[in-house]
Amino acid sequence: MADFLIAPSILSADFARLGEEVDNVLAAGADVVHFDVMDNHYVPNLTVGPLVCEALRKHGVTAPIDVHLMVKPVDRLVVDFAAAGASYISFHPEASEHVDRTIALIREHGCRPGLVLNPATPLNYLDHTLGKLDLVLVMSVNPGFGGQAFIPESLEKVRAIRERITAAGLQTRVEVDGGIKVANIRDVATAGADMFVAGSAIFGSGDYAATIAAMRKELAAAAGGAAAA
């Protein structure tokens, strides 16, 4: 399995000092900056747009920016976020009229495409797309709000996706978003995830570095268990 990546979600950061917050969380050991983009249409909330992504790049952020589009329609914002400096762009298949076209659009604009599966979204969306994706993002909560509790049934979905990736001989990442914290990150990794979105668990803690270090310790235990098996 690929190396583990921790991706704090800026949805839980202090927006009055966002550049400083991102600098601090990266200095504390995070790997990726996760953007939750909500449009008050596909999901019942409104968050950040491409200008915030561009502002962080201008601020000096060089880490990968992982953009999760909870928007409908999708394609115009793909182009805008790619221009703003996104690294990964993931979208929900239900929000795109032509899923294959949107995947290709992301790739054409120099970003790594991902497909997002909500708790009730079936895996058959991967039947004809998995080989074209750099990541599959499993929602372990219903999209639209931060701070929700992890849905345990998500673990089985992660396992099934990892099995598909392994069987196909692919290097596709499996990312999980929703309710990730120190207490459950080992189970999520053991199920097959290698990229972890954590918002309130990190930004809501008193010590970013200590929280991320505790997550790394759990991930190391998961990797050790997998090696022993």
Task: Briefly say what this structure is.
This protein is of the alpha/beta class and 229 residues long.
Describe the fold and architecture.
The structure is a single chain. By secondary structure, this protein is α/β, with parallel strands linked by helices. It has one domain (5-228): Aldolase class I (TIM Barrel), CATH 3.20.20.70. Helix content is 38%, strand content 17%. The chain has an eight-stranded parallel sheet. The longest helix is centred in the C-terminal third of the chain and has 21 residues, at 208-228. The model has no long low-confidence stretch (mean pLDDT 95).
The CATH homologous superfamily is called Aldolase class I
Distance between the termini: 13 Å
Low-pLDDT residue intervals, each spanning 5 or more residues: none
The class by helix and strand makeup works out as alpha/beta
Please tell me the total number of domains: 1
Shape, principal axes of CA atoms: globular
The portion of residues forming beta strands comes to 15-25%
Order of helices and strands: EHEHEHEHEEHEHEHH
- Summed over residues and divided by their number, the pLDDT gives a mean of 95
Assign the CATH topology. TIM Barrel
Write the layout of secondary structure elements.
Layout: E1 5-8, H1 18-27, E2 33-38, H2 50-59, E3 65-70, H3 75-84, E4 88-91, H4 99-108, E5 112-117, E6 135-139, H5 154-168, E7 173-177, H6 185-191, E8 195-198, H7 200-203, H8 208-228
Parallel strand pairs: 1-8, 2-3, 3-4, 4-5, 5-6, 6-7, 7-8
